[in-house]
Design brief:
The protein has about 675 residues and is α/β, with parallel strands linked by helices. The chain folds into three domains: about 325 residues, Alpha-Beta Barrel (TIM Barrel); about 200 residues, 3-Layer(aba) Sandwich (Rossmann fold); about 60 residues, Sandwich (Immunoglobulin-like). The protein contains 17 helices and 29 strands. The chain binds beta-D-galactopyranose. The site of beta-D-galactopyranose has 10 residues, from loops.
Length: about 675
């Protein structure tokens, strides 16, 4: 249970006796006249809003010029929010520097790979490595901490906003200087750097640190290790900014917890959140569901991974949308019920706060067509009615669930940021590799099989799981390889896929046949990769098919069973799917292609059986319904999400529904198409 007095959750000003769900949004009162504020407060009370994120883009209002501070409006709204029972997650306001600063100091602006300046006019036009930017950002942070650190509404600090959303890659001179310092820290000597970057290739040897550059536009493929290190450095540079603001906040307000909103969602890959998660007091995430088939599965995957980053502790859904966004090429609204389903699916995976971008839909500006809790139409609207109902569900129906933790599954998927970076750059056997997609494919297979799985970062304790899937684990340092081997030798069941275990942390190939450090474990050797062109598939002799990749495999161990061979394509006749059974009971399976969905589920079923894992739902619900479980000291809560467009009759379930099911005329309990329900299990 979240301890109300600890730093790992917003510090509720009214100190409730037991945990409760946070409910609210980004609130931007500076965009509105005072009379709207009063309506805001009234509607917030009506909707059950109890926390807002304030001031995210308010730097230019707080400090209109270098010599003037204007806190009056913020003092007033902080007080009014507090009087109305709304707590504040106060932003440090540093995400969008004001015009006076960029005019006086254009050297804080980011520079692209091709040398163009990123000008003001939007937001996040700052270099993470600019000492000038840093100084000014820390001045604002300090001023806010000093002024509001004791304010009774203050529940948490919100550092910057979506760090890296638009400025993760900066190739400026500041970036070059900081990159060199980062490299010196990593390699100590130029010899170390030359070795790691293999600079004898294409005559790239460095004889002075000043020669080393970020991977700017070059004549051909830039050194891949330089690219990988720049990805690491870019993530670290933003993390350092997070650390710098946090250090001030911790010094001035040691009792106020700190967070920043991550973007664990499909298209965002450049921030290593596995690493950043150690920097915050509680994990927050922003997620925007894809308006397409499979969108809810992707949401579930991301929410699950966010729970993994939070190490199973409750986390904070900082932003999602009540309806349409404004940044896809076409932006459909959500259908009735969809907002609640999306919200509660995050809750099912451990979110203890459900918040939106934003409270009131802007009348002007680049996001005026982005939905909000109060739409342009006002409170007389479907969206606001649903918002109010969701507030009620969280405060009443699900009140007892707040503070519970997700119950670990028996299977895990390991998600590796560095592999994601390494396989998405150039000069590879294929440009069709995608770690997020492959991991999501396996996640979907678990959902189809009706078996719970936890998505975990590589540095988590996945050894405690009975089955571990490590998809596209391309960058494999010896230490991780030893962990995997020890896991399987100790009785664990590992599944890994194509292009895994190929390089070390310096992006140097493990020699002697792929995948170097996993060869013996898998009992096979790959001599050649045989990637498949876009749109081309190969058949396997069990009737399945694969896309993206195939390998030319030699089986080297008598313990390795070939589960399927290639029937055609560049690896025809060779092994495609294998499993080595170890004498100690563990197993190591290898999947050398992107298997079609139905056969991936069938294969997973077999591997789950080997690991002794069965679904926890009645047979007829498996695949149609997603199950997640949260548990408290005394209770267990099961969330069931209908993955189909049909109503699902919930038969054979123990427990009491808390919300989300209807009872049919015949007395059976029915879960609406795409609906979600939460049940309390009877305690023993
Ligand atoms: C996020 C951002 C918000 C808003 C939202 C729109 O990236 O933090 O400020 O722009 O997206 O979806």
């Amino acid at each position: 249970m979240t301890d109300a007095g600890s730093r790992d959750w917003p510090r509720w000003p009214d100190r409730p006796a037991r945990p409760r769900f946070g409910y609210g949004a980004d609130y931007n009162p500076e965009q509105w006249p005072r009379r709207v504020w009063e309506e805001d407060l009234r509607l917030m009370r009506r909707a059950g809003v109890n926390i807002v994120t304030l001031g995210v883009f308010s730097w230019s209002r707080l400090r209109p010029d270098p010599h003037t501070w204007d806190f009056g409006w913020l003092d007033e709204i902080m007080d009014r929010l507090h009087e109305n029972g709304v707590a504040v997650d106060l932003a440090t306001a540093t995400a969008s520097p004001p015009a006076w600063l960029t005019t006086a100091h254009p050297e804080i602006l980011p520079v692209t790979r091709t040398g163009e300046t990123v000008w003001p006019g939007a937001r996040q036009h700052w270099r993470p490595t600019s000492p000038v930017f840093r100084r000014h950002a820390l001045e604002v942070t300090t001023a806010l901490a000093e002024r509001y650190g004791r304010h009774p509404a203050l529940a948490a600090w919100h550092v910057s906003n979506e760090l890296g959303c638009h400025n993760v890659h900066d190739y400026s001179e500041d970036a070059a200087t900081a990159f060199r310092a980062w490299l010196r820290e990593r390699y100590t000597t130029l010899d170390g750097l030359n070795h790691a970057w293999a600079t004898d290739f294409w005559s790239q040897r460095y004889t002075d640190w000043g020669q080393v550059l970020p991977p700017r536009l070059a004549a051909s493929h830039v050194n891949p290790t330089q690219q990988l290190d720049f990805a690491r450095f870019s993530s670290d540079a933003l993390r350092d900014h997070l650390r710098a603001e946090s250090a001030i906040l911790r010094r001035l307000t040691p009792e106020i917890p700190i967070t920043t909103n991550f973007m664990v969602m499909g298209h965002v890959s450049e921030m290593n959140y596995a690493d950043w998660a150690h920097e915050v007091d509680f994990v927050s995430n922003d997620h925007y569901v894809r308006p397409e088939p499979g969108g809810a599965d992707e949401l579930s995957f991301c929410a699950n991974l966010t729970g993994g980053l939070a190490r199973g502790r409750p986390w904070y859904l900082m932003e999602h949308s009540t309806s349409a966004v404004n940044w896809r090429s076409v932006n459909p609204p959500k259908n009735p019920g969809e907002m609640a389903r999306d919200s509660l699916l995050h809750v099912a995976h451990g979110a203890d706060a459900v918040c939106f971008f934003q409270w009131r839909q802007s009348a002007a500006g680049a996001e005026k067509y982005h939905s909000a809790m109060v739409p342009h139409t006002g409170a007389q609207s479907r969206v606001f009615r649903e918002v109010t109902e969701l507030g009620r569900v969280l405060a009443e129906d699900l009140a007892e669930v707040a503070g519970s933790r997700r119950l670990p599954a028996r299977a895990a998927i390991v998600f590796d940021w560095e592999s994601r970076w390494a396989v998405s750059r150039d000069s590879l056997p294929s440009s069709l590799l995608d770690v997020h997609r492959e991991a999501l494919d396996w996640y979907t297979a678990f959902l189809d099989a009706g078996v719970r799985v936890d998505v975990l970062p590589t540095d988590a304790d996945w050894e405690t799981y009975d089955l571990v899937v490590a998809p596209l684990l391309h960058v494999l340092p010896e230490a991780t390889a030893r962990r995997l081997t020890g896991y399987v030798e100790g009785g664990g069941h590992l599944v890994t896929t194509y292009f895994s275990g190929i390089v070390d942390e310096n992006d140097h190939v493990h020699l002697g046949g792929y995948p170097g450090p996993l060869r013996d474990l898998l009992g096979l050797r790959i001599e050649e990769f045989a990637p498949l062109p876009e749109g081309v598939s190969v058949g396997l002799d069990d009737g399945s098919s694969g896309t993206v990749w195939s390998d030319r495999i030699t089986v080297t161990s008598a313990e390795t069973e070939v589960l399927a061979r290639y029937a055609d394509g560049p690896s025809a006749g060779g092994a495609a799917l294998t499993r080595r059974a170890l004498p100690g009971g563990g197993g190591a399976a290898y999947v050398s292609t992107r298997l079609d969905e139905a056969h991936r589920v069938a294969l997973l079923g077999r591997l789950l059986a080997e690991a002794g894992i069965d679904g926890e739902l009645p047979e007829e619900l498996r695949g149609r319904v997603e199950l997640t479980v949260r548990a408290d000291d005394g209770a267990e809560y099961r969330f069931l999400t209908n993955r189909t467009d049909e109503p699902v009759e919930l038969r054979g379930l123990l427990g009491t529904p808390l919300t989300g099911v209807t009872t049919s005329a015949e007395g059976s309990r029915v879960l609406a198409p795409r609906g979600i329900t939460a049940w309390r299990l009877p305690t023993a």
